[in-house]
Amino acid sequence: MQYRILIIDDEDDIREVAALSLETVAGWEVMVANSGAQGLARASVYKPDAILLDVMMPGMDGPTTFRELQKNPETAHIPVLLLTAKVQASDKIRFADLDVKAVLVKPFDPMTLSTQIAGVLGWD
Amino acid sequence: MDQDKQASMAEVMNRLWVQFLPLMEERVAILEAVAAALAEGTLTTDRRVEACGEAHKLAGVLGTFGLSEGTLLAREAEMGLSGEPESGPSAIRLAEIGAQLRTMLADRKP
User: Fold this and answer.
1) What pLDDT score was predicted for residue A94?
2) pTM for this prediction
3) How far apart are the first and last CA of chain B?
4) Domain boundaries along the sequence of chain A
5) Which domain does B84 fall in, by range?
6) Contact, A67 vs A95, CB < 8 A?
7) Out of A13, A24, A87, whose CB is closest to B61?
């Protein structure tokens, strides 16, 4: 099945690697946004099957973006996976308070990113 | 994963490496400049915060391109720069990290 994924990340390199990884390896349809605000708008319009959301972004960060997604009835049901290079214990505690599906750690393996996501979401 | 997809992905990664190498070199240059400023005693808080952010970005991306050791070095720089200035990395260590990262970037062939 061709899933639709929205990647929200302000870092051009990570966004491109993740997008091309999911397109090339899994054949999924990928949309991208380079900020939390753009991500909210695109999620509302495109209604992706899942969202890969960076934690540290200028302006609206990942947790704030996630809370805004949850407030909107059009996007509240979309599963969100956080993507972060933060691996300190205090960060893990902070993320545990959020009702996200998973926290994926950067750097990720572009060859297996789609498998990780599919595994978390129970996709074929 | 089948071999065709693996080959396609390897090709994609090589293309992205070439595309984003200048950006990664720029980030390393910022770490090197901060190491120099630290040695001279002229490092400002703004510059320190900026360098911490650049180290964070390097830590997140280098391993994705197969440079796991680069991620560890960048993370060491990030952790050091994110704390109190007194407990941060020495100028010498930061310069070493910058030099090692620069060598890794130069040595990784597409």
Assistant:
1) 77
2) 0.91
3) 21
4) 4-114
5) 3-107
6) no
7) A13
CB pairs under 8 A between A and B: 61
User: In angstroms, rounded to a whole number, what is the distance separating the alpha carbons of residues A47 and A78?
Assistant: 8
CA distances from B82 to A91, B11, B36, B49 (A): 14, 36, 18, 7
B5: which chain A residues are within 8 Å (Cβ-Cβ)?
Answer: 24-25
Residues of A in contact with B16 (CB under 8 A): 13, 16-17, 20
Which pLDDT tens digit goes with each residue over B26-82?
Answer: 999 999 999 999 999 999 999 999 999 999 999 999 999 999 999 999 999 998 898
pLDDT in the model for residue B2: 80
Q: What is the pLDDT of residues B74-107, one digit of tens each?
A: 999 998 898 776 777 788 999 999 999 999 999 9
Q: What single DSSP character describes residue A22?
A: I
For A24, the closest of B12, B64, B71 (CB atoms) is B12
Residue that is written with structure tokens 């893990």 in the block: A92
Q: Does A118 touch chain B (CB under 8 A)?
A: no
* Residue type for position A57: M
The total of structural domains in chain B comes to 1
Class of the CATH-defined domain A4-114: alpha beta
**CA pair distance A48, A68, nearest whole angstrom:** 16
At position A52, the amino acid (one-letter code) is L
Under 8 Å between Cβ of B63 and B44: no
CATH of residue B20: 1.20.120
Q: In this complex, is the C-beta atom of A59 within 8 Å of any C-beta atom belonging to chain B?
A: no
Residue A106 contacts B, CB cutoff 8 Å? yes
